[in-house]
Every structure is written in C-alpha cells, then in structure tokens.
Design brief:
By secondary structure, the chain is mainly α. The chain has helices at about 10-15, 30-40, 45-70, 75-80, 90, 105-115, 120-135, 145-155, 160-180, 190-200, 210, 215-220, 230-250, 260-265, 270-275, 280-285, 290-310, 320-330, 335-345, 360-370, and strands at about 255, 315, 350, 360. The protein has one domain.
C-alpha cells in the first residue's frame, strides 16, 4: 500500500477519498472525516488514509489471530482457514488491497468479542452505532447484516414483546438509512464540485470511485453484459475450490440443543446458514468485482461458523462420514495433506473482476510485488 497509495489509478485509495464536499451522498462519511483532518492539520489526505489503513489492517489481522488461536483444528479446518478466498485474498490481489470491504469483517470480529459482555440491548446499540457508519461508508454492507443479526438472535432464549420490538426497530433504522442513500445519488454537478474542491483545496484528484457515484443500479448491472459461459464456469470452480472445506464443516455440524435460543428451537442449521449466506450473493448480480465478493462472503461465513464453534452454539461431528472418509483416505498421509493444501490454497487466487483469469502462485506474486512494484 505504501508504494501505490499516491497512484491515480489506485482505485482502493480513490474510494476513501469520496466525501461530502459536493453534498451528502453515498460512501462519503469517512472521506469527509479524512478531508476535515487534512484541512485542520494541513497534512496530505492520502497519507492520513494510508496511516488509517495501516492501523485497521494490523488490528484486523491481530483480531483474526486472537479469534482462531485457541480453536482445536483438524485437517479440514486447516484447509478452510487457508482458503485463497480468506486471509490471502486482499494480499494476493492488489485491486482488493485497502478496500473499504475490510471494515465489515473487522467490525464483525469486534462484535464477536463483545457478544459475551453485553446483553441484547447493549449489542443492539453497538450494532446501530457502528453499522450505520459502515452503511454510510459503503452501502454494500447491507448484504452482510444478517450475520450480525444472528448474533443478536443467539441472545434470545424466549421471544417477548420487548425483544421483538428491539429487533424490528434495529431493522427499520437500517432500512431507513438504505432508503435515504438510495435516494441520495450524486448528480454530475455535485461530483464535479467535489472533485474541484479536491483539486483546489486538498491538492489531490478524484479517482474512479467518485466518478461512478451517479450510476444507478441499472447501470451497474449493465456492466455484467459481457458475462458468458466461460466466466460462469471459471467462477463456479472458484466457489467449489474455495468453499469446499468450509461446506464440509457446515455439513458435519449441528446445533447444540443444550444452549437454549430461538435459533436452535425453530431453525435447521444448514437452512439458517444458507438463508443468511444468500444475500451475500446479490453483489455478484449487480457489480463486476467478483473477487471482492468472494472474499467478503467467505470471510463472513467462516467467521460466523467459528464464532458458533467457539461459543458452543453448534458442534462439529468429527466422526461424520465425509470427514472420516477424507481424513482416513486422502489426508491420512501427511505428504498427501501438504500436497492438497499447496494445490488448493497456494497455487491460485481469484482476480478482482469476474472476467479476468485466475491468478497463480499468490505467495510468489505478493513477494514479487513488494520487491519490484
């Protein structure tokens, strides 16, 4: 990031530069904060954003480490954690590095840490506060809200009027925010004014992120017009290879009935996870950045799954037929295990846009970019 943050073609940095200088609109909250800090302290805005990214990346990977460090592992769990759709994804693909997307799993990790410390009302207030910031930073956050809602639902052992009203109130607030954002599209004049302010006051330039703010949902979907069978087949295999280990874990898991909550009383675990995961597929139908959506949907799903494992909401049956078959037939020999891990996890990675070919040897590519970029 430190070698590319000044480039005008850095679309990740361009997203963070979006602000309210041309009027209220989508994605501008943090950009306006950075703008004001830059003006107050007379300091380059890109450096402020870069240091902010340093902090959140370090904090994110620290939380990842703390989240997983005490989990009992097996070969399938190891493969799921090393999936190229998870930790390696934003590092292997420069177009995905430094995007606003990281704020969603970062907040989820923070939210998981608060789960056992707060009651339903406290968790609801935290969700309202921080998720409002996420929505005002990037409206795509709405598709990942169900994972947070499930944590709220886990807090409920018996439905009461008070608890139902709390859940409905939180949902209505978020739908109201989305309604406001959907009706606050920037006009070409507002974008022009914002970019002129960037140039004249901050001595910087708007990037691609600013110039697509006046696009409608229809315009975004139109970008997928070049989608063909080759693209679909390639991305289908990305899904299968990337999600395979996690799907096996979910298939071999069940609700822990001794932990009373409304979810294990009224829902089947697999169906509940499927319904929660389903909204994360919507961005694939409205934007071309499929590599980012793969990373986000997988990250949120694996974090939610292991939250449930850590808090004993579900349990993994390590003697299930499929896990027994894989561990005793293919993964029993350590050499075979290392070969499979290398092939599945370290030889490929999805690119940022759906029509691009699959990336190869991401570890080598990362090191090469660091040295030569």
């Amino acid at each position: 990031m430190s070698k590319t943050y000044q480039l005008n073609v850095n679309n990740s940095m361009a997203e963070w530069l979006i602000n309210y200088q041309g009027g209220f609109g989508r994605r501008g909250l943090l950009g306006e904060l950075f703008t004001q800090l830059s003006l107050i302290f007379d300091y380059p805005i890109r450096k402020i954003i870069l240091y902010f990214l340093y902090v959140i990346f370090i904090f994110y990977y620290l939380l990842i480490y703390l989240f997983f460090r005490n989990i009992k592992t097996n070969y399938i769990i190891i493969i799921s954690l090393l999936s190229p759709l998870f930790i390696l994804s934003p590092l292997a693909e420069l177009e995905a590095l430094g995007r606003k997307d990281i704020l969603i799993p970062l907040f989820f990790l923070f939210y998981c840490n608060l789960y056992n410390r707060l009651n339903l009302f406290g968790l609801s207030l935290i969700l309202l506060l921080f998720y409002t910031i996420l929505l005002l930073t990037h409206e795509v956050s709405i598709f990942y809200l169900p994972f947070f809602y499930l944590l709220l639902a886990f807090k409920i052992e018996k439905l009461t009027i008070y608890k139902i009203i709390t859940l409905i109130f939180v949902a209505l607030i978020f739908f109201f925010i989305i309604y406001i954002l959907s009706n606050s599209a920037h006009s070409p004049e507002a974008i022009k004014f914002m970019c002129e302010r960037m140039k004249n006051i901050l001595n910087d330039k708007c990037g691609l992120g600013a110039y697509v703010l006046n696009r409608s949902l229809k315009d975004n979907i139109a970008e997928l017009g070049g989608l063909n069978s080759i693209h679909l087949i390639r991305n289908f295999f990305i899904f299968i290879l990337g999600y395979s280990a996690l799907i096996i874990l979910i298939q071999s898991s069940k609700f822990n009935k001794s932990k009373n909550n409304i979810l294990n009383k009224f829902f089947n675990l697999k169906l509940l996870i499927f319904l929660t995961f389903l909204p994360t597929l919507i961005p694939f139908a409205i934007a071309v950045d499929w590599g980012r959506w793969f990373n986000l949907s997988y990250t949120m799903l694996i974090l939610f799954y292991f939250f449930c494992i850590k808090n004993e909401k579900i349990f993994l049956n390590e003697n299930s037929k499929i896990i027994n078959y894989l561990t005793k037939r293919f993964l029993k020999n350590k050499t075979n295990f290392f070969i499979i891990v290398f092939i599945l996890c370290f030889t490929w990675n999805p690119k940022a846009v759906y029509h691009e070919d699959i990336g190869s040897i991401p570890i080598y590519r990362m090191l090469n970019k660091i040295i030569t970029h």
